Amino acid sequence: MRAQKRWDRKAVLELLGVRATRDKQALFDQADTVRRERMGDAVYLRGIVEFSNSCANDCLYCGIRAANHRVARYRLDDAEILDLARRMEGVGQTTIVLQSGEAPSREGDAALGRLIGRIKAETGLAVTLSVGNRPRDVYALWRDCGLDRYLLRFETSDPTLFAHLHPDCDLSERLRCLGDLRSLGLQTGGGFMVGLPGETLEILADNILLCRELDLDMIGLGPFLPHPDTPLGRSQNAYALDPDRHFVALAVTRLVNPDTHIPATTAFDALFPGTGRNLALIRGANVFMPSATPVARRGDYLLYPGKPCLDETGEACARCVLSRLSTLGRTVGQGPGHARRLDRPWPGQPATPCPEGCDHPPLPTA
Ligand code: SAH
Hints:
It is globular and about 50 Å long. It contains 13 helices and nine strands. α1 (9-16) packs across α8 (201-213), α3 (78-89) packs parallel to α4 and α8 packs parallel to α9. By secondary structure, the chain is an alpha/beta fold. It has helices at 9-16, 21-39, 78-89, 106-122, 136-144, 159-165, 171-183, 201-213, 245-256, 266-271, 276-281, 295-298, 314-328; strands spanning 42-52, 95-100, 126-130, 149-151, 187-194, 218-223, 263-264, 287-288, 331-332. The protein is 39% helix and 12% strand. The two termini are 25 Å apart. S-adenosyl-L-homocysteine binds next to loops.
């Protein structure tokens, strides 16, 4: 039910190849319609805290790679993170996303588990983690501490390109992690960058189809932006001459994955200042991740250049998203906005059979 089978590789490639402005607009409209029909008009707000930029890896594209010595490394302490979490609840944000670079240690894993437990005990937030490849038992530990979801983009479905970009990892290892997360019952997010140097339309099509094959609960995708202090600093985005192709990729991802949460990622605003994320919301996206990272640290978490709102506070980002949504005529998602397959009613929502006609029994009233 969740996966729409009619999009095969040839059809996806045809959609990705649209050139005429009119055809692109028709595709965007179709994606918006599917988003409305399958996910509704509510936009789920997931506040993101970039809690550490320490990283042992050297991904060729990433501004916080280990070899970039221009970065001042930081880690927020738990009290500060908990304070940020508590503030999210008052502004319609029902999930906290904790993201960081990758400097794993067993003590760090255990400490993160304790933090997840505290956030779950002390707030009503769902918790998402995005801290990279870890062994299955670590994911299991975090799940047992109350973790709801995990984001781990596969970045590209092409094994050769993946290996070139990641000196520390290969694609099969990344897919092993995604499989572990899924089999542990965590809501699992994957995704990819659009326009990596060396990316062809065929690779892009396979990225989108891999999302469906993995049956992802969330898909994060956004433009690749060359960071000057990385080995790809002088490379160009593969679609530099036709930046709208990033929205084409988003729209096709929505058509092929109709029931998946798809955020309007910040990188869209970096490529299209002021408008990128709004356009993403009307071209397939149904989630927004306002930044809650403290202002003093935002400039130290530059994965790519042009990141917006570096001198804004979390409160300003919270206000900004609410005004974006009202401009677009969209509402704020109520409840945690879990994966569709886990949909549970929240207080006040009546039990109804699944409107999609899925064969799970009517859900109980909370
Ligand atoms: N260490 C975590 C978090 C990575 S940051 C992990 O590996 O999962 C989140 C995402 O930012 C990455 O998955 C990548 O897709 C994106 N990103 C990193 N550098 C980028 C760049 N130069 N341009 C666009 N997106 C980038």
